[in-house]
Amino acid sequence: MDGFADEYPCSNYDLLSQIPVTTLANTNGTPEGSDIWGWTDTTSGKEYAIVAMTNSTAFVDITDPINPIFLGRLDSNAGNNYWRDVKVYNNHAFIVADNVGAHGMQVFDLTKLRGLTTEQVFTSDAIYNTDNLGSCHNIFINEETGIAYLVGCKNDLGSSIHSGGPIFVDLSDPKNPIKLNHYAAAGYSHDAQVVKYIGPDTTYTDKEIYVGSNETKITILDVTDKNNVILVAEIGYSQLGYTHQGWFTEDHRYFIVGDELDERDIGVNTRTLVFDFSDLDNPVLSSTYFGASSAIDHNGFVKGNRYFMANYRAGLRVLDLTNISDSTNSMTEVGYFDTYPENDNTAFNGAWGVYPFFASGNIIINDIEKGLFVVRKSGTLKLNENKMEHRFSIFPNPALNTTTISTNNNFQLQNIKIFSILGQKIFEKNNLSEIKYVLNTSQMKTGIYLIKINDQFIQKMIIQ
User: Fold this and answer.
1) What is the pLDDT of residue 386?
2) Residue 462 forms beta bridges with which residues?
3) Co-location of 134 and 9 in the same domain
4) 142 and 202 co-located in one domain
5) What one-character DSSP code corresponds to residue 264?
6) pLDDT above 90 (res 137)
């Protein structure tokens, strides 16, 4: 709902459930949340959150976003630290971590999650450690080509490998990754995106284009031929703090960049830079977006005409890209879910990462201190809601002391479950076999609840 979901400020996005760090991580070191990614099972369509922690990687079935199931974790292959990153290709997760020693890249077969409903202890299916690979800051996988790009890497002794530039790894046999080459000439990449280019610059149509966020610049490479990488362009910008991460619009015309340190070091509000990549040889700054607070921007991703930003203490921010070509009003905030309700100050707390790509509309956020959040655009959690309107009714709604759940068309109530907006189950009644049930709501706090009927149908209930 708009306003608040329990303690969390929000607008146009609702909280469906939350799982704390204490469940997701093991107890080694200082358990906290890091990056996050998602996997959709290609056979069942079930959705899973892959939640990176300082000491492990957690796997959560979020197919029922109201009732997520923690399935277990894969512990770090070496030490613990703040940076752990994961991406998915061909039903496998590929996991790297930074400043953790001889970690390598963990490979985990995600099909092992199929059918699980209880917590397990998981182990890696393979470890990639060519070049004595120890720690990497990040990984990107071009799923169109099956090539992983490992960036910001060190060997098992902590010395930089290939100047921190990208290492190209063939994942066509997921449990047997093979190094193809590397590129060191452009220096350290903190993060990267690689696409099969379909943008307006026809010189590069169908080329594999790498865009690195390289600390002090954006670097564009043609990596189509891994043995003949071509430097296309490099671009900086004024008031540079730290070029951190970026993402293409879906038409590949614009590239949206976050600078992680400008808010802290320069004193600006959340600043997001939009670059016009119509001419890859000559990219230009198209516009600059400033947020409402001084919170630090972290990782951002594009889905359709929306940009989903993990904004640290300001939580998830959702920006409309409809006017992306406008030089002064390129992005407009249309919603948010703030996982750090204390304040929106300039500090490294709150939302680290977000994954907005599930077909269902479920969005997952990993918060450093509070763990996994599952949120969704308000009014989109249907779950057979239309069918429910014809089979069940709740009246009065809003309710004060009681409300009655009734059935239509000869259906029966078998079970009723009630959840808070935080996803906590507060009531359950089973084995009913009735057509009407009077629910006592007099002891329930004012707010919005979710009623789940017969384990299928969900409806909102308001307590006045």
Assistant:
1) 44
2) 448
3) yes
4) yes
5) H
6) yes
Supply 380's token pair: 């989109």
- Secondary element (H or E) of residue 75: strand 69-75
What confidence score (pLDDT) does residue 438 get?
A: 93
CATH of the domain at 445: 2.60.40.3080
Domain match, 391 and 279 both: no
Q: How far is CA 433 from CA 7, 179, 429, 458, in A?
A: 37, 61, 11, 18
Sort strands 120-122 and 69-75 into parallel, antiparallel or unpaired.
Answer: parallel
**Structure tokens, 211:** 């865009």
Which of 337, 353, 377 terminates a domain? The answer is 377
In the numeric block, which tokens belong to residue 12?
A: 């146009």
DSSP code string of 352-400:
EEEE---TT--EEEEETTTEEEEEEETT---SSHHHHHHHEEEESSSBS
Q: For residue 109, what are the domain limits?
A: 3-377
Report the number of distinct structural domains present in the chain. Answer: 2
Rounded average pLDDT over 166-187: 98
Q: What is d(CA 51, CA 108) in angstroms, rounded to the nearest whole number?
A: 13
Q: Say which CATH number the domain at 365 has.
A: 2.130.10.10
Beta 230-235 vs 218-222: how paired, if at all? antiparallel
Give the tens place of pLDDT for each residue, 303-314: 999 999 999 999
The whole-model pTM stands at: 0.87
Read off the pLDDT of residues 413-435 as tens digits, 9 standing for 90 and up. Answer: 989 999 887 677 889 999 998 88
Work out the angle at residue 182's Cα, subtended by the Cα atoms of residues 110 and 77, and round it to the nearest 5 degrees.
Answer: 40
